[in-house]
């Protein structure tokens, strides 16, 4: 047994570490919003992530076939828009609410078109969670922030569909590296227009590098390693814990407090996501 194999991280801890890494990255991102705004922070993260992945993977762009370009370009655009909308939501609502609402997108994709009572039940459970979060009578979280989180979830569902098509014609690491390059296209114009990127300093670039590491590079590496040995259903169930991790991360790192009803909403959406996974065994690619 070589040294790398001896010290490789087991699959389940790798997934849990990936979840923690993503939420830690979200906390870093929220700390950058007052300085760079959501558009500037998204541009910095995606730009640095694309640079790291392109150097690490070294995809041969000149050898891509037309069918591969037709698959990977919309995949990358969906990835960029998903991240941009999520950060715009995160600038307005707590992390512990933005992530559960974003999960509604993949969950809706999992039960879409199904006629089984069980799937209708999971959808109803998620709807109850959304109802508990909704700002009835003008009180509660920012309505635009909640809508942006749901829109990010819709992009996540599109990203999953497009990701499956891309994976069929292009190896995974190349797809993510090239996709991240095109993910910058819908985001950079907003980042440039905001003027925040002109205020970049070595300190902010360092924080941006940490953001790219924790939000994209490290989770991608850990999840790719875990998926080599972990059944897809087990992986999806573990990833369903992400809204809980987001709420705990927001409480611990950002001092965001959720109401009891909001914690219940998080629990309902987690239960719906895990339940849909158990009954369907749906694969759930991770966001970039």
From TrEMBL:
The chain crosses the membrane at residues 34-57, 69-87, 93-113, 120-138, 144-162, 174-192, 204-222, 234-254, 260-279. It is a multi-pass membrane protein. Pfam families: EamA (PF00892). It is found in: Membrane. Residues 144-274 form the EamA domain. The keyword Coiled coil does not apply. Its main location: membrane. The keyword Transmembrane applies. Keywords: Membrane, Transmembrane, Transmembrane helix. Belongs to the EamA transporter family. This is Inner membrane transporter RhtA. The lineage of its organism: Bacteria, Pseudomonadati, Bacteroidota, Cytophagia, Cytophagales.
């Amino acid at each position: 047994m070589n040294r790398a194999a001896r010290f490789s991280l087991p699959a389940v801890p790798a997934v849990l570490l990936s979840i923690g890494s993503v939420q830690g990255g979200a906390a870093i991102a929220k700390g950058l919003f007052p300085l760079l705004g959501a558009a500037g922070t998204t541009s910095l993260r995606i730009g640095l992530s694309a640079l790291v992945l392109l150097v690490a993977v070294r995809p041969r762009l000149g050898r891509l076939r037309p069918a591969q370009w037709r698959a990977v370009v919309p995949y990358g655009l969906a990835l960029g828009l998903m991240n941009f909308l999520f950060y715009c939501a995160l600038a307005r609502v707590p992390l512990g609410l933005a992530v559960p609402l974003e999960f509604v997108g993949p969950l809706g994709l999992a039960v879409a078109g199904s006629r089984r009572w069980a799937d209708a039940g999971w959808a109803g459970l998620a709807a109850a969670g959304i109802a508990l979060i909704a700002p009835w009578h003008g009180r509660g979280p920012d309505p635009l922030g909640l809508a942006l989180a749901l829109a990010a979830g819709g992009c996540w569902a599109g990203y999953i569909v497009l990701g499956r098509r891309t994976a069929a014609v292009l190896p995974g690491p190349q797809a993510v590296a090239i996709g991240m390059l095109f993910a910058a296209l819908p985001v950079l114009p907003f980042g440039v227009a905001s003027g925040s990127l002109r205020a970049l300093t070595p300190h902010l670039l360092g924080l941006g590098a940490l953001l790219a590491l924790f939000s994209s590079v490290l989770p991608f590496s850990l999840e790719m390693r875990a998926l080599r040995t972990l059944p897809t259903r087990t992986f999806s169930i573990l990833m369903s814990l992400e809204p809980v991790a987001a709420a705990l991360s927001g409480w611990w790192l950002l001092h965001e407090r959720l109401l009891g009803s909001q914690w219940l909403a998080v629990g309902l959406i987690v239960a719906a996501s895990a339940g849909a996974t158990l009954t369907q065994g749906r694969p759930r690619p991770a966001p970039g």
